[in-house]
Design goal:
Structural class: alpha/beta
Bound molecules: iron/sulfur cluster
Largest sheet: 5 strands, mixed
CATH topology of the largest domain: Lambda Exonuclease, Chain A
Distance between the termini: 63 Å
Shape: globular
Radius of gyration: 25 Å
Strand order of the largest sheet: 2-5-6-7-8
Length: about 450
């Protein structure tokens, strides 16, 4: 492990796997874990709570099939938990669930420690680390977390575990090399060390939507809270003395401050519009939307897939102002036929307005199926990412991805923060997904009126 100092005055004295995992998502959230006031942290939304509950159920199910031991120690007494875990490993038990690996300031509590053959300081055996995940496919942040645990385990048993593993939603096991991830882990830990020793600023992104620190981060907004700018653009603008929203909103590109600036005029214009969007809590137009030639009659399309396994769950379309057709794909084996039928239906009409993911989702499914390429090509030619067009022309007070988000801002409302799509996809709640698809098609319809502004 690289040298690591917990800064004086920090509110916690341990680095856990959650921080390694969280650092990849938003480094400022980890900084706030150490320096923020925990009382300001918001509880999980009902949707996130349900997703977490599903994850715990899945973990219980997997662990329930294994005859593993679990250390029992008083709450928070991790040194005791670590002693017990070491005792179980020295005994050579088949496996340990929720074992404690503690080498202050690092604390790891992996779901699984599994005994495998091969000598170590423990005896003729050693252990490897695994985590149980609700996702259908492995993610790099999950592997990094297991790599963190593996590093701690390697030091305890005097032998680096040859691999780490993830048990996925369908019960399959995904292995990866711990040695391959070590350089990344070292880099993350040293960046984390540097981050905690200094100051940090928020970065407004999708991750903020369900983050417990969002009230803290948005309480005193400045240039760092403007969505759609990169971290370095924000730093440069702040370094020009334009960090405050009021100053930024009032700046003119021919101001003396702009002389010799490395920030482009276009970026500064977006930043200025972003400052106004945050002050007035409304969408601000930066330029006219670039509407390409359209083919009539206009139609709208939506594709929802499971965020974890990429499987398509719902496809929906509508001729604008007309009736809605929804394909619910309840069985994976029906996916190909539904995609083919849907692409064919869309190829019959004019320009297809969508919110960005439609063509990508269909292309992913069609790539290995030459019989679909003709229809896909026809769809590609007539697809228009309406949300891309909207984001290019307006700046919003928060990141927007769905047409319902953009429409809410245009109508003077803040969009809902709860990610119902992820929940419904996880629960395979087709009625819920269909309801979302219908409201997204409604919003595309209304955005088309507002943005594209052409007769249908
Ligand atoms: S609200 Fe956003 S910037 Fe703030 S900690 Fe959470 S994810 Fe990071």
């Amino acid at each position: 492990m690289p040298p690591f100092r917990i800064p004086t005055g920090a509110r916690r004295d341990r680095v856990t796997g959650s921080q390694v995992y969280g650092f990849v998502k938003c480094e400022h959230s980890v900084w706030l874990d150490f320096h923020g006031d925990p009382a300001e942290r918001l509880p999980h939304s009902a949707a996130v709570e349900r997703l977490l509950e599903h994850g715990r159920d899945h973990e219980d199910q997997i662990v329930g099939t294994l005859d593993y031991r679990e250390p029992a120690y008083p709450v928070g007494k991790f040194a005791e938990g670590a002693d017990q875990t070491r005792g179980l490993l020295e005994e050579g038990v088949l496996g340990v669930s929720q074992g404690v690996l503690f080498e202050p300031p690092f604390l790891g509590i992996p779901d699984l420690l599994r005994r495998v053959d091969g000598a170590s300081d423990l005896g003729d055996w050693h252990y490897v680390v695994g985590d149980v995940k609700s996702s259908w496919r492995p993610r790099s942040d999950q592997a990094l977390q297991v790599s963190f645990y593996s590093e701690l385990l390697g030091r305890l048993q005097g032998r680096e575990p040859p691999y780490g593993f993830l048990i996925l939603r369908d019960g399959s096991e995904e292995r990866f090399s711990v040695a391959d991830l070590r350089p990344v882990l070292k880099e993350v830990l040293s960046e984390l060390d540097e981050l905690l020793a200094g100051e940090s600023r928020p970065h407004h992104s999708w991750a903020c939507r369900e983050c417990g620190w969002r009230d803290t981060c948005s309480s005193d907004p400045d240039v760092h809270w403007i969505p759609g700018l990169t971290r370095s653009e924000k730093r440069l603008i702040a370094a020009m003395g334009l960090g405050g929203l009021a100053q930024l909103a009032a700046v003119h590109t021919d101001d003396r401050k702009m002389e010799g600036s490395v920030v482009s005029e276009a970026t500064l214009e977006r930043a200025r519009a972003g400052a106004r969007a945050l002050i007035d809590r409304e969408a601000v137009r930066v330029r006219p939307p670039r509407v390409p030639d359209l083919m009539h009659p206009l139609q709208a399309g939506v594709a929802y897939r499971d965020g974890f396994d990429r499987r398509l769950l719902v496809l929906a379309r509508r001729s604008l102002g007309g009736t809605t057709v929804v394909h619910r794909i309840e069985r994976a084996e029906d996916e190909d036929a539904a995609v083919l039928a849907f692409a064919g239906e869309l190829a019959e009409g004019g320009t297809v307005l969508h919110s960005g993911s439609l063509v990508r989702a269909i292309r992913e499914r069609a790539i290995d199926r030459p019989e679909t390429w003709g229809r896909l090509e026809a769809l590609d030619l007539r697809a228009l990412d309406l949300m891309g067009l909207v984001r290019g022309a307006w700046v919003f007070p928060a990141p927007v991805s769905l047409p319902t988000d953009a429409l809410a801002w245009f109508e003077g409302r803040a969009p809902a923060t709860e990610d119902r799509l992820a929940l419904y996809a996880d629960e395979r709640d087709f009625a819920g997904l269909e309801e979302l698809a219908r409201s997204e098609l409604d919003a595309l319809d209304q955005l088309a009126d507002r943005v594209v502004g052409v007769p249908q």
